[in-house]
Amino acid sequence: MSRWKGLLWKEWVLARPGMALLVIAAVLSIGVAPFLLQRYVVPDFPVMNIAAIIMGLWMVALSYMPAVSLVISLTTDMKRPDIWLHSPVPTSVLIGAKAFFAVLMTAVSMLLVFGVLALANLFILIFSGSSGLPESVPAGWFVGFLAEIGSVSLFLGMIQMGLVILFWTIYQWMKKANRVIAIVITGAMLIGTLYIWDKITTWGPYQKLAGYGEVPFRYSEKLNRINDWALDITGVVTASGMLLAVIETVFCVLLAIYIFNRKVAR
Question: How is the chain split into domains, by residue range?
Fold first, then answer.
């Protein structure tokens, strides 16, 4: 446990400046910008509608945060080969701690965005006497809606992280010979993989296998019936599809760790 604490604290020290910038950006973009836009640009558009749209953009951006954070942390440590060559900690634990921290910070960032959105609504309620949200709608609906889109964004982020770490590892391996060649080969492999993956996912038997157990997004459906600012994510996720995605991601991560141990960390 002390080993994990030390690794996670090291990641936190590295991530603090970025997290501070993220807090400032969230406050300005959701807590300030909607009011300015409503006042000077789109006066007929409700403030909370603007804030909800910006929040949706945040969810899209944060879905890339686990992969980006992991690559930044790994690239920083690659400047110190002794971490990989002489550390008593297994590579799987070193990378696992980085991946866990990246996902944790993404979840915290989502909660921060949701919190700023809630404070913006509270501000409207205090100074205007009425909420900027549709009337007669239980607060639990909004909490459920935010939980749904946050879960989807976080899940996508973890899936992307598995693919990114694999190709980052391939690049680090190829870079030992030549950086330019490494970029070309890794890029070609990535494009080829995405092309093959597109063919597989549009293949009839795979679509059938991935189509079992549709996951309903009840709160998104309810809010879409009342107000068109809710994000319509209904019907795009299935239990079997999620399971296949997890299996594929685990495979990518295990392959990346194998390549890293055999070709990179030597």
Answer: 2-264
Which amino acid would we find at residue 33? A
Angstrom distances, CA of residue 108 to CA of 6, 23, 156, 244, 261 = 20, 11, 16, 26, 31
CA distance 134 to 148: 19
State pLDDT tens for residues 197-235.
Answer: 889 888 889 888 888 888 878 877 777 776 655 455 444
- Distances, alpha carbon 180 to alpha carbons 74, 158, 176, 177, in Å: 20, 29, 11, 9
pLDDT in tens, 142-173: 888 888 889 989 999 999 999 999 999 999 99
Q: Half-sphere exposure of residue 92, counting CA atoms within 13 Å on the CB side?
A: 5
Q: Please report the pLDDT score of residue 38 as a whole number.
A: 86
